[in-house]
Amino acid sequence: MDLVLLTTFTALLFLLIAAAEPVADRLSLPYSVILAALGILIGGGAIFLLRTELTDALNPVAEAILALPIRANVFLYVFLPTLIFQATLEMNVRRMLDDWVPILTLAVVAVVVATLTIGYTLAWVSGLPLMVCLLVGSIVSTTDPSAVVSIFRSISAPKRLARIIEGESLLNDAAAIALFGLFMGFVMLGVPNPSLGEALGGFPQLILGGAAVGWAVARIALMLMGMFHRFELAQISVSVAAPYLAYIGAERLAGASGVIAVVAAGITLNLMGPGRLAPAFWVNLREVWRLLAHWAGALIFILAALLIPRLMGDLRAGDLGLVVVVVLAAFAARAIILFLLLPLLTGLRLSPKIERPYRIAIMWGGLRGAVTLALALAVTESLRVPVETKRLVGILATGFTLFTLIVQGTTLRYVISLLGLDKLSPLDRALSNQVVAVALQTVREEVSSTTEKYDLTRETVRSEAKRFAARLDAAVERAEAEDNAEILDRDRITLGLIALAGHEREVILQRFRERAISARLSEQALFDADRLIEGARQGGRVGYQRAARSALSYGPSFRLAAFLRNRLGISGPLARMTADRFEMLLAKRLILRDLHGFIDRRIRRIHGRRVAELLHELLNRRIEAADTALEGLRLQYPGYAEELERRFIRRTALRLEEREYAAMREDGLIGSEVHTELMSDIAQRRAATELRPRLDLAMRRNELARTLPLFADLDEPELKRLSRQMRTRYVNAGQVIVRKDTSSRSVYFVASGAVEQEVAGQTTRLGRGEMFGQMGVLTRRVRRAEVRAIVPTTLLILDEDGFRRVLKRSAALRRAVRDSIAAGSADVLRLPELMIDAPEPAKIEPAKTEPAKPETPPAAPPAPEPPAPKPDEPPLAEMASAAPDAPEQQEAREPKPLGARVRRG
């Protein structure tokens, strides 16, 4: 094909891509449907021009269009890696982990179910070989969610729903293409009906091999991008090469799935890139990939649609019936997943609930598109596939794609409207009326001040003010209507919490743009803010508080990192996660304190004083919890928080300095040469501040122990020895530390946070510097107490031998133990460790009698002397006070309450 003609046609395609989006918006149709229609018109028009006798002038153009080098490998090796890699970079992987059950169900389980349902149904109806039917099922199982996602976003559907669909589509393509490669191999080998186990036996190898190749390529790419950190274009070039190397390496070298390799490479870069690359570069990188994916997605749709007239050229009457069978089987498989399996997982609490209207929209929005056509084209191009098989696969895949685009795509918005998903709820409508009224009042004040400032014509101001006042009166009337009385305080609190979390998200983005926080921490903070929004939507105040506590808790990965450090000596993961937690808590504390002003400026005017005061209280609780968690880390690693604060001040100073230089350049005070030199100097200093100080993970238990009053009288050698015997344990709020009826082998000291102890129906709270578990260790009895953390808590744990040894050396610890069992049993008080500095028990002396004087009459006989106490028998007073208590009473006296509230249950 002539190069000039090919270039001209490519330029015209880009013009069509540019025009497709506004046309789709004008016609209220999905963007992909317009692209497919353009492709079909171009391909069909070219065939018509060649076959018609009306004119021959356009035959060269038609021949050039039909001769375009459109092959399946162009789609699979050029466009597909770009689309998949960009999707993984845009994913919020942490948020998708919350919905991993429905995502994997729709992506993997649904693909397998759809492939088997379509394959067996088609084989039963048509009599075709089972392997050919399964191949058709794998081809039509891929979905294009762009249409339904774009519509959901336009109607402000829940973000979780759009996230589930996006995650499904990404993994859906990977699973379907892996199955396609598996069945395609059997078809080319001429194996018509292998066993199902034989057919699926190679599936794990495709998945695991692709994941390994993608991870390795991403790590190498990150290493190269780190080496080129001063050259942004070089870093972007490395990122462009990564998905193609992963795809080709998996397909050609490892015999695995190239799509899985690209997914693994993108997820690895998504998780590790923000922490290793500059924040500004990470933003630019994602913008570049967003543009590349837009072009690739549009081109693959148009070019694939060009082939539809060619693929449907040999259509026969009986083929339409088979297309109907494929459509019905696909809908049946989708319905099984959405209306049977997902509700079952929700009932088992393995998946969040998805409302029925949204499930119907997901089912009807499962459009097929470019990937389905590309896989069908790959079958038709294979020389090792029988001709009749190629014809049937091409017609069935193309016919099913046309049905989804023409029927489902054009009616999707109507179905969503019919389900009521595009309508505001009564609560949202009432809130909207109040928001409009408040906003217009503010606008009136600002417009009035503006007109006075510019001294506008009085008649013009008066006429416009009259029009605006009419609009304002109508808005106030709607806001004060009886329908708006449905907004209860509970609903106002929920709406206020959603608005507060949304503003928190905006503050996080602003801090990231100002480089006050890194890209990785900003993603984690945005993840927490999204969970706050969804928690408030689903559970109101309780859901919001639950999400806030979850943001400060130690997750499974943190506990795994602590296990690796304590048991295997691998300290890298724990050091990195602890440093991240330090930085996140500092940033969170600053962000939360900025939210009080938003409550007073905005929420108070819309929802009233009571709601605003409650939000202030909830926000103060979050700040207090963040301070408590940060204090625990300060105690564990003193000095590191100060280094992070210094780094924050330096980065803020650089940002302000950069702003000043930009203002001076705009004012003409400095020229471009001077400004460039100053920016280069700032860039060098900023590169130094981007490096986070290294966290010394050596557990400073001796310094932590020194802060506890119980060990205040120990000397330095003894503290060091004690620190070597102690273990550190982090626990989340609500986590059970000690359970009832378990053996007592350790004593726990609260280094930071607070715990709650329940013994014999009594609840006692213990704070920093207190201990629990000592009575069980000293008496060697089964525990009768259950202890759980109230907030994220840091504990120091000492085993029985270490506790008894330090008890002999610490007078303060002995006093604390004796106070906790002041009315306890005598056998505990007489332990050698507790008797070191105990006061000597008072001895009872025998009564002394004076000898009778001779001149006086004899006195009455003296009373018998009380028997002297035996050496191994305690005095009576001590025995009376040492009567043994019941085990429950003994445990109840183990900790000493610090003025805490006691509940009886």
UniProtKB/TrEMBL annotation:
| Taxonomy, superkingdom | Bacteria
Q: Give TM segment ranges.
A: 30-50, 100-122, 128-149, 170-191, 203-222, 253-272, 292-308, 320-341, 361-380, 392-416
Q: How does it sit in the membrane?
A: Multi-pass membrane protein
User: Cyclic nucleotide-binding domain: from which residue to which, for each copy?
Assistant: 710-824
Where in or outside the cell is it found? Cell membrane
Q: Which UniProt keywords apply?
A: Cell membrane, Ion transport, Membrane, Sodium, Sodium transport, Transmembrane, Transmembrane helix, Transport
Q: Where is the composition biased (Basic and acidic residues)?
A: 843-853
Any keyword Cell membrane?
yes
List, in alphabetical order, the Gene Ontology terms for molecular function in this entry.
potassium:proton antiporter activity; sodium:proton antiporter activity
* Compositional bias annotation for Pro residues: 854-869
Cellular component per GO, a single term: plasma membrane
Q: Which CDD domains match?
A: CAP_ED
Q: Which InterPro entries does the UniProt record give?
A: Cation/H_exchanger_CPA1, Cation/H_exchanger_TM, cNMP-bd_dom, cNMP-bd_dom_sf, RmlC-like_jellyroll
Q: Provide the protein name.
A: Sodium/proton antiporter, CPA1 family
Native species of this protein?
A: Paracoccus tibetensis
